[in-house]
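This section describes the prediction task in plain terms. A model, or a person checking by hand, is given the sequence of a single protein chain and must write out its three-dimensional structure as a string of tokens. No templates, partner chains or ligands are provided. The sample shown here is typical of the held-out split.
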Amino acid sequence: MARSLFSALILCCVVPLQAAEPLDAFPVEVEGKRRHVIELPKVVDESRFMVELVPGKNALADCNLRSYSAPLQRQVLPGWGYPYYVLAEPKPSKGTSKVCGSDSESRRFIRVRGNGLILPYSSSQPLVVYLPEGVQLKYRVWRADKNLSDAHSK
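The expected answer:
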């Protein structure tokens, strides 16, 4: 009786800790960058889905096309094996050089482009991304069609 009571008590204490553990394992900051978390819902066939990270900054911009560039690096949390991602400091990319009207300036979201921004879909653990100060994170989920098409040899 005492043994089953002890087992039940251990189970009650351990289960809530395990649910919070994956996110608690990640520090709030890495290399001076803040943690951003995406928790994806479970889906039937996760192999058909991808997640596109869309980091960016709100900035005053005219009618010219603008963007920033920065690579995203995958790293692994030591001792845990959980992956996380760190975005380098974004640098302005070359934009267009159109002549803009004086009223064309507005505050808008200017995205960061770079390698590694499309990731496999996984609902089993949170997607953790560290971004420099002033960078926001948006994301988009991509879904592949169930139907496969045949390629033809020519």
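For orientation: The mean pLDDT is 84.
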